[in-house]
Amino acid sequence: MSDPVSSCTARLQLQEQEIRTLSAEIESLKNPQSLSPSPHLEQLRDENTKLKYRLNILKRNLQAERSHCSKHMMNVNLLLQDVFGDAIRASCPELDDPPLVVTPNQQAKFGDYQCNSAMAMAQMLKAKGIKISPREIAEKIIQNLPENDLIQKTEIAGPGFINVHLKRTFVSKLLSNLLLNGVQPPPLASKKKVVVDFSSPNIAKEMHVGHLRSTIIGDSMCRMFEFLGYDVLRLNHVGDWGTQFGMLIAHLQDKFPDYLTSSPPISDLQAFYKESKKRFDEEEDFKKRAYQCVVRLQSKEPEFIKGWNLICDVSRKEFQRVYNCLDIQIIERGESFYQDMMTEVVKEFEGKGLSQLDEGRRIVFAPGQSVPLTIVKSDGGFTYDTSDLAALRQRLFDEKADIIIYVTDSGQATHFQLVFAAAQMIGWYDPQVTRVEHAGFGVVLGEDKKKFKTRSGDTVRLMDLLDEGLKRSMDKLKDKERDKVLTPEELLKAQRSVAFGCIKYADLSHNRINDYVFSFDKMLDDRGNTAAYLLYALTRIRSITRLANIDEAMLRKAAETTEVLLDHEKEWKLGKCILRFPEILQKVLDDLLLHTLCDFLYELATTFTEFYDSCYCVEKDRQTGEVIKVNMWRMLLCEATATIMAKGFEILGINPVHRM
Ligand code: ARG
């Protein structure tokens, strides 16, 4: 057992076992019935005291082990919850489930974290007829705080807030851990499966800015789950099975009669779609034939499947260009995949008596919902509702997903609400066990605050938008004369990184629930909360160590031997900021709002700047410019900041460059 982590864990388990035994012994000493009527009561009391003492020591060690032996990055907020949880239970045995609230403090002068439980506890006690002030409860909580190595001091403020100040040695130790192990996620109790349904454009139609949002947000969610060790299935639920295929295939047959033997050169599927739509609306015969085509496609006649495949392929190639730019991995599993399962789904609802007929349609009313789902249309066809019910069932029972997330615009909120309610009604899942969630988002607006359009009023094509981003990012780099400093390859890399990074970050840094204004000028600005600013910040931090001629090996050595000092106020602030990363991720995991991560990265970058402005990392000779002293612990702070920023970028899908 040479691995320190496994030997630590083994020791931890032994200790926990011993603690349980000791606690049981103490309990039995307390119980007078279990005492034999011997005259050795004094002796037993003595033993009891010793046992309690040992138990305390063991508990203290346990705490220490918890915070030092694992490789993953500790969630300081959780550690505090642990400590306060013990104290709260001990100070209020009257309450079965006392509230446990520990949150980071917004204003640093009041301490680093705050425990706000006392107020709610006083209320709960009052309801039980016990009168005690929140301040008194707060005092009790503090008295009952177990020995620990993370809290420097506590103080009571206002009506009963407990302000918590962290210990420097604790923060410093966690930073060393981070430097030695990298950013390691907390261990998962069991491997969980997540399905993320995102991007999901419609075949033969243009992928629009709404799909761009879904693509960016969904990809970032996947990256977060992947980092946290989940088994992630990224699904592209493309619209590939609608009635529109009837007219598309009918038009294909007319325009490219030999489509079965040679691939038709459809370069502009949009135009092709428009042509067929026009004919559908104007030519009665064509319309009839289009309907027949749908029926023949749905009964899977090979010729029709071939035509359908050809059209899907053209779309696929278009979508793939966007995914390549944005570095998106996704598996296509469109509506057509669920075709046969839809029949099953309808049977199941019918069989369980959970559907009804309504003017020829088959509908499903879920409890508490005022509108029904339509699962079979009056012409016998299935709908968007049917395919989503089938997809949900497949994901629950075949994929055995623990978490299923749908990333679409908020306009589809009702649709998903109905689908989820129907699925619960029929007993497919229990929301207490499986997390099924629609992560909706607002619309993209132009700078005029109206729906995002081109100057001529057309919808914006995504590839044009991405190309425009590339052009603007190159203009910006040239404005700053970076083309004179960087090699041509470096310049191209920087161009892509800035362009696509900025487009992604602009989306992710806004609360997804809200609409957001798309502005190249704003997103490419290198001041403020933008990817451009953060990308520059990271390259700058990385260049500090490079310019001081410190390589990775030296940093590693330093991480093992040099304590990260946090005496300067700005070092202290930066150190604590770095360590908030795990609690930020925890929050994003809970509410799927990625802007919290963006805000954090921005705060980290500005906190770093404050530190760098007031703390010398390298001291140079004023005359010669020669390095005379390297303050290694500060280099370590630079490195820890860069490590967290890089991990944050990875989760946001932003690609940092070495030089820009
Ligand atoms: N294709 C749909 C659209 O463009 C989005 C599909 C979202 N996913 C789903 N399972 N309904 O609006």
UniProtKB/TrEMBL annotation:
Pfam families found in the cross-reference section: Arg_tRNA_synt_N, DALR_1, tRNA-synt_1d
Signal sequence bounds: none
The keyword Aminoacyl-tRNA synthetase belongs to this UniProt entry's keyword annotation: yes
Known EC number: 6.1.1.19
Record field: catalytic activity: tRNA(Arg) + L-arginine + ATP = L-arginyl-tRNA(Arg) + AMP + diphosphate
Top-tier EC class: ligase
CDD domains cross-referenced by the UniProt entry: ArgRS_core
Any one GO MF annotation of this record: ATP binding
InterPro entries from the UniProt entry: aa-tRNA-synth_I_CS (IPR001412), Arg-tRNA-ligase (IPR001278), Arg-tRNA-synth_N (IPR005148), Arg-tRNA-synth_N_sf (IPR036695), ArgRS_core (IPR035684), DALR_anticod-bd (IPR008909), Rossmann-like_a/b/a_fold (IPR014729), tRNAsynth_Ia_anticodon-bd (IPR009080)
Alphabetized SMART domains for the sequence: Arg_tRNA_synt_N, DALR_1
Gene Ontology annotations for the cellular component aspect, listed alphabetically: aminoacyl-tRNA synthetase multienzyme complex; cytosol
Domain Arginyl tRNA synthetase N-terminal, chain residue ranges per copy: 78-166
Presence of keyword Nucleotide-binding: yes
Alphabetized UniProt keyword annotations: Aminoacyl-tRNA synthetase, ATP-binding, Cytoplasm, Ligase, Nucleotide-binding, Protein biosynthesis
Gene3D superfamilies registered for this protein in UniProt: Arginyl tRNA synthetase N-terminal domain, HUPs, Isoleucyl-tRNA Synthetase, Domain 1
Gene Ontology process terms (BP): arginyl-tRNA aminoacylation
Compartments (UniProt record): Cytoplasm, Cytosol
Domain (DALR anticodon binding) ranges: 534-660
Record-stated family: Belongs to the class-I aminoacyl-tRNA synthetase family.
Name by which UniProt lists this protein: Arginine--tRNA ligase, cytoplasmic
Organism: Pleuronectes platessa
